[in-house]
Structure formats: C-alpha cells, structure tokens
Amino acid sequence: MTTETVSEQEFEVEIWRGRDSGEFVTYRVPQRESQTILDVVSHVQRRLDPTLSYRFACRVGMCGSCAMTVNGVPRWTCRTHVDLVAKDGHIRIEPLRNLPVIRDLAVDMVPFFDKWERATGQFVPSDAGNRQTFARVPPESRERQEADAGIECIGCAVCYSACDVVAWNADYLGPAALNRVWTLVNDTRDGGKPEHLAAVAGDAGCHQCHSHQACMTYCPKDINPTAAIAGLKRATVRSVLRGEL
Fold it and tell me: What is the C-alpha to C-alpha distance for residues 42 and 158, in angstroms, rounded to an integer?
C-alpha cells in the first residue's frame, strides 16, 4: 500500500522591509485553517527570515501591541483572519501609518504617548487632602456614562494610524489622546478639568478634528473617539463663553 503525499497549499504575502525607506518583499506561506495575520508574520520570522522585526505580546486581543496595516487598514493582527481580509488572495502587511518606523513592521510609539502627556491625559485627584475617602460616582449619571463610553481604550494606536488629520498635521493630538481627556473631563473625581480643556482647545486640539470617523470605524474596542472629540468641542466653547479659557 502506498501513501500519497499531498502538497501543502501556499499563498503569497507582501511584507514591508526597512524603515521609512524600504521595499515590500514577497514570501510564500503555508495556508492553515483559522490562520491569523499574526500567524503569517510569525511564520515568516521563524521559518523564512529571522531578521524580520515586528511586535506582539498577548496574542488574544488584549494588549494591542500587534497592530499593523493589512491591505491598507490598521488592525490587530492577532484577531485578523487571513480568509476575511485577503483581496483576491492578496495580502500586504506594513507598519502602522503616522508613526516613525523603527524597522520593518515595528513602529516607535513615543510620539503617540507624548501627545497623551501634552493633552494632560493624567488623572488629577480632586481631594488630595483626604485620600482615604471613596468618591461615589452614580452609574446612572450622564458624566459616568460619557466616561464609560471611552474608558476601555488600551492605547494600541489603531485610531491614530487611521486618522487623516494626524497625517495632514503632525502636531494634532489625535483621537486616542482626546478620547482620554474626555473621560477625565467627565470624571467627577478629577480636579483638573480647566487644565484638561485648556490643553485640548488650541490649534492642535479637538477643533482640528474633521469628523471623518475613521477612528470609530477601525477601533478594535468599538470606542467612538469622534463623539468624545465632539464633546470636547462643546465643552471648550462653553468654557470660552464663561471666560474660563
């Protein structure tokens, strides 16, 4: 009795190699069931080219560190299945847009998080002299619901990569940083509301948003930064009319 050897099905994938200047290199990868884009990149690095640089950690959609651009769309590659995104069998993988490329698929996240700092995205305790007291925030309050809508952001920079305004204006704070500020403005425990609004009211802040909603479209956590930014626009205008800004 003879056993037939079934040849493994393969497909081609283009992967960006280099820094801001570089080129796409084509690899042939075995086709697997339930295969993710991260599986593809890992196969290339482990079996075909160990010099390929990329970033990942949890592999289960919790950390966001594996975000890359797949066929022109920013995505978490650990949760992106090949059979759902391949266009006519074609896959092109490149680093996130709007961030400096360290090498290949790994980008420098420092500018992204620097903008969180510029936007004053840090919680400011309002009761520094009595920190043993727990502040009760009613779940049904409007402010609590507004904050809850954006609180699950994990800083993966998918929205930042998708944002056309960031591409046009490198100083623009970006949807993630502005969404973070909106959660703080609506947190009744935060004592830095005037500073938060002042930080996002300038030329690089919330009023630069064109409401294209790409951030909402591609956010893996289903957050709507466009709505948060619209809230900041209203809040800063009210502060100006009251003479607070």
Answer: 20
pTM exceeding 0.70 = yes
Burial of 202 (0-12, 13-18, 19+ CB in 10 A): middle
Q: How many C-beta neighbours within 10 Å does residue 147 have?
A: 21
Query: Which domains, from first to last, does the chain contain?
Result: 10-107 (3.10.20.30), 110-241 (1.10.1060.10)
pLDDT (tens digit per residue) in 16-60: 999 989 999 999 999 999 999 999 999 999 999 999 999 999 999
In the numeric block, the tokens 């990868």 are attached to 29
Inter-residue contact 223 to 216 (CB < 8 Å): yes
Backbone φ, ψ for residue 74 (5° rounding) = -70, 130
